[in-house]
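Ticket #4471: complex job returned nothing on first submit. Input attached below:
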Amino acid sequence: MIRAVIAKDVWLLVRDRGALISLFALPLVFILVFGSIYRGGPDRERPRPVAIWSAAGDGRGAVIAAVLGASPGFVARPVGSAEDVRRAVADEDVVAGLVIPADLGAPIELVIDLAAPIQVRGPIEGALTAVVMRALGPAGSMPRIEARSPPDLAPPLPEASAFQVSVPANAVLFGFFLALTVAMTFATDRRTGAWRRLLAAPVSRRRALLAALVPYYLVGVAQLAFLFGTGALVFGMEIGGSLIALIALSLALVYCAVSLGLLFASIGGSERQLGGIGSVVLLVMGILGGCMVPRMIMPSVMQSIGLAVPHGWALDGYYEILVRQGAGLAEISPSIAALVGFGTAFAAIGAARFRFE
Amino acid sequence: MTDAAPAVRLRGVGKDYGARAAVGAIDLEIRRGECFALLGPNGAGKTTTISMVAGVVTPSRGQIEICGLDLQRDPYAAKARLGLVPQELALYEELSALQNLTYFGALYGLAGATLAQRIDEALDIVGLRDRAREPAKRYSGGMKRRLNIAAGLVHRPEVLVLDEPTVGVDPQSRNHIFATVRALRDAGTTVVYTTHHMEEVEALCDRVAIIDAGAIIASGTVGELVAQHTTHEIVIELGGDPQAIAAGLREACARGATQHESSTVRIVPTEGLATLIGAIEGTGAVIARIASRDATLEAAFLALTGHALRDAS
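Support reply: We reran it on our side without changes. The output follows.
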């Protein structure tokens, strides 16, 4: 009898793609993704560039560059002016910069994005301070170093709490799970015959499809309003930038999530299959996009891969709005454009593949 | 659209799935106010046919008219005249009957007082008004079936398509569904009823079309079909040892459309009775009893398709 039960369950399991993926593929995907994120720390093999400028004839720049070059993990990139250092940092061409002023009494400017999470910024600041100390300290008095954001970047909130990061990360991760709800609703309606009833009604198929999606758009908006509202009112999450920009980004995110749901629905399958496969896809997208580990502390390759999923763009936008003072629509327009672009692509493919009958 | 137009008219309607024709090319007319059955085994094409009539499935060929309105050219007006009751319980079980009917009524453009009135009417017809505010998940299987019918009725359609509405219901609920269908027909609603139960057709329907392998092979009243396709059937009860009975049954099956249960075989004879009896006795089986009885729709189905409905399904 036990043998028959085992045989039956094995037959069922090998036919259940969702369960197979959850049991066998999902752990492998997680191992691969998390392994890539944590492999030897960020970019162990590739030293990160630091822009450096000193006035002509000032030998301190060359000394610092030499010590920097000898330090593991950094490489000096001399530029033509102090402004070039600040621009390179603002454009994220380099992780930080050093401006050595001609006035020996003036502090050395450590140019770094002060809005970056302390987990990202702290080690770089510490390492560069140590480099400057080693280069200049023994020869004379201890140099003064001041960390500043590039003037092109809006300054960060004076005291950003951990909720500035955890609220958007989880809002993005779970906001995109709306896609699964959308797809499973279609699967349930097909199974129960409610979808046939909708098709038998005197409404166009396009309108029927739209009508099935719109409620989930509203649900998604309500979900994000609840999460950010709770974050602000209960957990003390601050909004450094514009509330309108936050709303616009959230609307774009929900559009993208609902469109992804249509794409999932167009692939078909039972509720169980969608639940298994869809949740894996969404979790992996969330990890790559930085919902579980901030993309900023990932290796540069993983940071780039993170922008291949909408989660990465959404999180970048939320960080701008929540952490930087005065960040508005202009600052997050790339994120909004990316979410709308992803959403439109998902919707177009989903609508083209969707089988009404 | 004219009142004289039939409730449903199909001209050369068929549906292909890839290279396979699920329905060939059906011609059919269903008159206004009648209860019309589409009878056939599972997989015969009944659901595909009514799905095309309801506008759920797009035909590969042919033309469909609902109350004189071309379903392809004027789909919304045509669909508004038709109500579909799918074979599945196409309901939202977490919602009450009232909420379900509000949703399905709104799909047909109903709102406000009109919708409320139509919901009351539909609930009265299926006898669920006193349970209207309970979630459907608390209903018995039969009550859910009745709510399923109410959802197809709420917009007061001229044509109601019921796809195997008695699947999985107890006898009491089945009788309730029968009473509902009769009441609707008496009120002038055209009822299109698919089933593979002969007795439902005989009990309810004015006319019937027999569908098999995607083609309508006969249509008419139950009386017409029986009269046209068979006059009587022979019931033979076999005796002897089990091996002889089995051999006798095999011989009987080989000699025409037959149906057998245990040691009794029913045959619509296609040859002389003496020849048939001789052949069965030749196997060693003993004929314990033989009787002739008036043919039924089941016998007509046997004669038309060459197989019993339950065998095919």
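Chain B has a mean pLDDT of 87. Closing as resolved unless it happens again.
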